[in-house]
């Protein structure tokens, strides 16, 4: 991901680059090479966004594939008012929400403690990157899916609040509310984990 | 710097620091293959598939209408056989009566 730019404060619509408008036109005409360019450009971020919401590698790949197939099928109907990336994220978001609501039980934040590790010290009490990743992923899964999606779009994928709100089909105010609650909940869950690790390792 | 701005930076750092997994190396090839073989025409979910190309809800409605009509025909026919020579017009009093009238006419 790019360096944090704080672009969520930019209250403007991110325009689609001319090049992507041209590529989408080519894709609408069945140009496979143009499709491959868009695929290479956004596939990793679409996959990781889907993974962040589903925490399931195979499902995230399915969602990524279906998102791109819908882009291929619907390129002719694409309205170039927003970025192609946003369109892909919106498709992926809807697919993930469908998947979460039909197949996966919602995890209650209050029940998150059981999912997180009690204490897992590495040598000298340091927490390695893999463990850190596990905590963050697991903590994310304890949040309601809308909070999770908002956090992923704005803080991981670096989208503006306006873009993220459009992807989630909510108002900017509603998005900001989701972000505030998501931040607070994520901090609470991670703080609880940190406290338990300190208790387990004796770190002060 | 405001607390909210600090939180924004912290959240960004937190999520960026995680070692996010990558998609399988063959996912790109799978997607391109799906496009090549026309997976753009993938079937809709199973619950959307109904016989005769009808949308699911319309198919159920058509089936129910047919069952009511067929039930009326069958019941009307049987009643007609039971009551032939006495009365058949009473068949119109119960649900599906129109079917019974047709059946009665056919059997006469």
Per-chain topology:
The complex is a heterodimer of chains A (204) and B (108).
Chain A lengths: L17 H11 L3 H23 L2 H18 L9 H20 L25 H13 L3 H12 L4 H8 L3 H30 L3
Helix pairs in contact in A: 1-2, 2-3, 2-4, 3-4, 4-7, 5-8, 6-7, 6-8, 7-8
Chain B lengths: L2 H15 L9 H10 L19 H28 L13 H11 L1
Task: Give your account of this protein's structure.
The complex is a heterodimer of chains A (204) and B (108). By secondary structure, chain A is mainly α. Helix content of chain A is 66%, strand content 0%. In chain A, helix 6 (145-156) packs antiparallel against helix 7 and helix 6 packs across helix 8. The longest helix of chain A has 30 residues, at 172-201. Chain A is elongated and about 60 Å long. Chain B is mainly α. Chain B starts with a helix and ends with a helix. Residues 40-49 and 90-95 of chain B have low confidence and may be disordered. Chain B is elongated. The chains are: A mainly alpha (204), B mainly alpha (108). The A-B interface holds A 1, 4, 6, 8, 32, 35-36, 39-40, 43-44, 47-48, 51-52, 57, 60-61, 64-65, 68-69, 72-73, 129-130, 132-133, 136-137, 151-152, 155-156, 158, 183, 186-187, 190 and B 5, 7-9, 11-24, 27-28, 30-32, 34-36, 39-40, 42.
Radius of gyration of chain B: 32 Å
Report the end-to-end length of chain A measured between terminal Cα atoms: 33 Å
Largest sheet of chain B: none
Strand percentage of chain A: under 5%
What global shape of chain B is seen?
Answer: elongated
The helix/strand series of chain B, from N terminus to C terminus, equals HHHH
Gyration radius of chain A, rounded: 19 Å
């Amino acid at each position: 991901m790019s360096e944090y730019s704080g672009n969520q404060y930019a209250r403007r619509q991110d325009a689609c680059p001319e090049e992507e408008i041209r590529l989408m036109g080519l894709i609408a005409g069945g140009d496979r090479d143009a499709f491959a360019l868009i695929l290479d450009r956004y596939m990793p971020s679409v996959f990781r966004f889907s993974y962040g919401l589903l925490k399931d590698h195979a499902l995230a790949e399915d969602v990524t594939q279906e998102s791109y197939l819908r882009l291929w099928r619907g390129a002719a109907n694409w309205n170039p008012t927003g970025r192609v990336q946003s369109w892909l994220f919106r498709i992926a978001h809807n697919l993930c929400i469908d998947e979460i609501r039909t197949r996966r039980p919602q995890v209650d934040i209050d029940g998150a403690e059981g999912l997180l590790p009690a204490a897992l010290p590495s040598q000298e009490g340091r927490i390695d990157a893999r463990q850190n990743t596990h905590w963050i992923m697991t903590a994310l899964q304890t949040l309601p899916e809308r909070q999770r999606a908002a956090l992923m779009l704005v803080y991981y994928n670096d989208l503006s609040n306006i873009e993220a709100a459009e992807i989630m089909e909510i108002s900017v105010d509603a998005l900001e509310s989701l972000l505030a609650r998501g931040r607070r909940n994520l901090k609470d869950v991670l703080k609880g984990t940190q406290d338990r690790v300190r208790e387990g390792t004796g770190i002060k | 710097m405001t607390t909210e701005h600090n939180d924004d930076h912290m959240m960004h750092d937190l999520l960026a620091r995680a070692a996010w997994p990558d998609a399988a190396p063959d996912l790109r090839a799978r997607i391109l293959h799906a496009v090549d073989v026309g997976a753009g025409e993938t079937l809709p979910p199973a619950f959307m598939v109904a016989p005769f190309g009808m949308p699911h809800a319309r198919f159920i409605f058509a089936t129910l209408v047919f069952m009511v009509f067929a039930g009326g025909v069958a019941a009307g026919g049987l009643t007609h056989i039971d009551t032939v020579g006495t009365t058949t017009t009473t068949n119109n009093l119960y649900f599906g009566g129109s079917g019974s009238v047709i059946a009665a006419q056919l059997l006469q």
